[in-house]
């Protein structure tokens, strides 16, 4: 076994280029690259404007693509009530997920549809282009557009119940033509940096190449470039997406070829490994840790029967497939017949969770589980149903610590921005530096210079930070492995074999870290020292000498992990957004119809002040208020509002903003900290909200449509009143008779009470009785107006809150 010296600081790989490649990249960038002067559209605009070029779509997600709270529609998202999915209490297979969405999770705000397969352009007999597919495990292609004879724009599906998290890709194509050079542009990636600009290439698997030459997954493709494009994100006016563009020349006609970001490792692949290797081995046992939201089994593998425990786990983030290969290599070594594995099994019990997030892996997510949660951000307080595996792992750790000592935790991950493999730890204590130092000496893929020994504020809820107190020794690490390459004398692309070797090196490093402790207890154990060794005596002595003479206090490592792989918070649904998705599905059809009627009435009676307050003001009072409003309209940037000679200051950051249009009084509110002023014109209705620091009422009036003189002019004669249709009389009565019994009682108790319309059995009263006749005098104070306004406002809010 060879030992390795320290790696130099990472340097960018320089991608080999040729004139044809540069020309192709220039053409793609010229069309799609971000330009500040360009009034770019968002991704939803692109999707709707290019439907004539659409050749493939995974499913019709339109009913589930909008967040009800803010009406933001996300092109490739799927929002649904995850608790309702849990209540089905059945295994959700990928092939039936679409039909379950239609049958059980259809939004109640939309008209129910029956599930029907989409009619795709690529299914036509005359179609001659590539045929795409993503209806299989871990795939995530949402839509493809044919923009040229040999060029396609692709949109990857967002993680379920999230607004983004797109970086992983996995899809297949058929109907290929030999020697055809095809360009694929994935236009909705979110990270601002990528190793694809530093030499990384997609991994590709050809069915015919595997059958004829035995070739599996390989890194291939040309013209690889990653850049900021012009398509804005749906919930932002500033941020845009990024494009990954690459070309591939097909070797066979009528072949089926798979493309992925990194070597795929599926849930089925894990189960096959468990059945083939783990269950047939005498040193290991398998049981279910828990069942997930989709009722997938989360396996827990136990190896060894030692008195102390070590916890290994992987695939919190489904798209980080290198972690699965690494932890598989670790398990394979632990069940070997060698001295190191034997001693580890006798001294430790290894608890291994190889796939924490099986639902995310199955459904092709990059970072989240089905509920849209980044599992590595909720370890402080996980939910038993929504964050099932994390909750049960924490419970497992409690059980372990009650009976024995948990000596180490390693959380396996993948990294899309850095080279090599490296560790994150919580602090820079010399004790914690020893294990990464040993790993960097044993493994050619681990670079000590890339390690970080600190915890950023954004990582306080990760497993590494939340479980720190559960490990008395402090040995808790996050292991990151590059999607691309590691570097020694020269750069070397990672492949699946390298990731497995990394897992073996991690276990050997654990052996070396606890070697002295294990040798002290070997006399009490039955160790077969005739077994072969992985590290010979000379190598072991050299490593001991190196560790003994190395001064860990002089080892300077990175103290900032804030620049880790991504910022997941911006794509996670906020609490209010999640609540709006859940509550919108709880509304019955009857409630929704009633709500639509109320909205319709609101719009049809914008000038009817009696509909809002049934409040009449004297002309002299109106004239005083109108003078104040005219002063306001001269300058929209006034910092104060005059109220009959008294100034009320705005809170910091608030401004007076009113439409410069012909508007009419709709609401008069007072004696509250938040005041609403509704104004309207012929085309639209605006609502402005501002906050003051005063308890005095604020009144905004331009013109009262029911002033005393106007009412007298508009009163109908008895004959005209009798000519009103029953329909019109009922409409007026329904508008004016909506006041609650409680508000009527309160109004009648006051000497300045308002005359309410008392609904008659047949609505036979004339229009003049429907209109309030008890006008307020000019002596009416604004405090009295505010009291009445507040009652009416609260009444209306109660009606709205029911929906």
Automatic annotation (TrEMBL):
One of its GO terms (biological process) is proteolysis. It comes from the Eukaryota. It holds the Pfam family Peptidase_M14. The active site is at residue 480. Its cofactor is Zn(2+). GO terms for molecular function: metallocarboxypeptidase activity; zinc ion binding. PROSITE patterns: PEPTIDASE_M14 (PS52035). Residues 263-514 form the Peptidase M14 domain. Belongs to the peptidase M14 family. This is Peptidase M14 domain-containing protein.
């Amino acid at each position: 076994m060879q030992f390795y010296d320290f790696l130099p600081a990472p340097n960018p790989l320089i991608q080999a280029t040729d004139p044809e490649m540069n020309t192709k990249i220039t053409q793609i960038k010229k069309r799609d690259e971000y330009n500040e002067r360009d009034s770019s559209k968002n991704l939803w605009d692109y999707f709707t404007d290019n439907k004539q070029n659409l050749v493939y779509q995974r499913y019709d997600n339109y009913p589930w693509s909008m967040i009800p709270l803010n009406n933001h529609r996300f092109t490739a998202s799927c929002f649904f009530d995850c608790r309702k999915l849990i209540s089905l209490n059945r295994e959700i297979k990928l092939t039936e997920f679409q039909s379950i969405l239609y049958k059980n999770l259809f939004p109640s705000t939309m008209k129910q549809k029956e599930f029907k397969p989409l009619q795709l352009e690529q299914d036509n007999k005359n179609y001659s282009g590539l045929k795409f597919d993503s209806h299989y495990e871990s795939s995530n292609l949402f839509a493809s557009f044919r923009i040229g004879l040999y060029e396609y724009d692709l949109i990857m599906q967002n993680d379920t119940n999230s607004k983004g998290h797109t970086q992983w890709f996995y899809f297949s194509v058929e109907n290929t033509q030999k020697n055809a050079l095809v360009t694929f542009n994935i236009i909705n990636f979110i990270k601002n940096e990528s190793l694809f600009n530093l030499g990384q290439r997609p991994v590709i698997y050809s069915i015919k190449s595997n059958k004829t030459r035995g070739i599996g997954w390989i890194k291939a493709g040309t013209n690889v470039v990653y850049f900021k494009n012009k398509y804005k994100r749906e919930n932002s006016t500033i941020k845009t997406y990024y494009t990954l563009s690459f070309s591939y020349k097909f070797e066979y006609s009528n072949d089926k070829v798979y493309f992925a970001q990194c070597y795929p490792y599926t849930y089925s692949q894990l189960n096959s490994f468990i059945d083939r290797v783990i269950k047939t081995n005498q040193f290991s046992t398998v049981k279910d840790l828990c069942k997930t939201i989709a009722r997938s089994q989360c396996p827990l593998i136990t190896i060894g029967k030692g008195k102390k425990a070590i916890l290994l786990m992987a695939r919190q983030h489904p798209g980080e497939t290198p972690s699965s290969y690494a932890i598989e290599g670790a398990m394979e070594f632990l069940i070997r017949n060698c001295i190191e594995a034997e001693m580890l099994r006798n001294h430790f019990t290894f608890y291994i969770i190889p796939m924490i997030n099986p639902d995310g892996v199955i459904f092709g997510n990059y970072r989240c589980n089905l509920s849209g949660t980044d599992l590595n951000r909720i370890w402080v307080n996980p939910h038993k149903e929504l964050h099932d595996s994390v909750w049960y792992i924490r419970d497992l750790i409690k059980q372990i610590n009650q009976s024995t000592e948990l000596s180490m935790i390693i959380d396996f991950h993948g990294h899309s921005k850095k080279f090599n493999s490296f560790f994150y730890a919580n602090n820079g204590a010399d004790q914690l530096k020893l294990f990464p130092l040993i790993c960097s000496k044993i493994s050619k893929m681990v670079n000590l210079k890339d390690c970080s020994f600190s915890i950023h504020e954004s990582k306080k809820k990760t497993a590494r930070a939340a479980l720190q107190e559960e490990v008395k020794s402090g040995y808790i690490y996050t292991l990151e492995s590059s999607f691309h390459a590691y570097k020694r004398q020269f750069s070397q692309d990672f492949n699946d074999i390298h990731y497995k070797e990394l897992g073996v090196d991690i276990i050997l490093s654990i052996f070396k870290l606890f070697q002295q402790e294990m040798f002290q207890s070997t006399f009490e154990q039955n160790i077969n020292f005739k077994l072969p060794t992985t590290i010979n005596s000379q190598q072991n002595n050299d490593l001991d000498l190196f560790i003994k003479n190395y001064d860990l206090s002089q080892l300077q490592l990175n103290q900032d992990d804030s620049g880790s792989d991504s910022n997941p918070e911006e794509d996670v649904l906020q609490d209010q957004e999640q609540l709006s998705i859940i509550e919108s599905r709880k509304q019955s059809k009857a409630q929704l119809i009633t709500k639509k009627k109320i909205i319709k009435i609101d719009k049809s009676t914008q000038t009817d002040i009696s509909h809002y307050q049934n409040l009449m003001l004297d002309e002299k009072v109106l004239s005083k208020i109108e003078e104040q409003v005219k002063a306001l309209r001269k300058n929209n940037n006034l910092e104060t509002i005059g109220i009959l000679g008294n100034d009320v200051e705005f809170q910091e950051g608030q401004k007076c903003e009113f439409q410069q249009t012909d508007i009419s009084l709709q609401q008069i509110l007072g004696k509250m900290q938040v005041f609403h002023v509704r104004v309207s014109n012929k085309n639209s209705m605006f609502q402005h909200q501002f906050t003051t620091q005063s308890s005095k009422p604020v009144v905004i009036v331009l013109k009262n449509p029911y002033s005393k003189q106007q009412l007298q002019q508009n009163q109908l004669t008895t004959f005209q009143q009798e000519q009103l249709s029953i329909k019109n009389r009922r409409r007026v009565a329904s508008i004016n008779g909506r006041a609650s019994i409680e508000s009527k009682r309160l109004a009648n108790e006051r000497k300045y009470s308002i005359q309410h319309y008392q609904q008659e059995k047949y609505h036979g009263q004339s229009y003049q009785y429907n209109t309030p006749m008890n006008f307020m005098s000019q002596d009416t104070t604004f405090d009295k107006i505010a009291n009445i306004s507040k009652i009416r406002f609260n009444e209306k809010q109660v009606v709205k809150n029911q929906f």
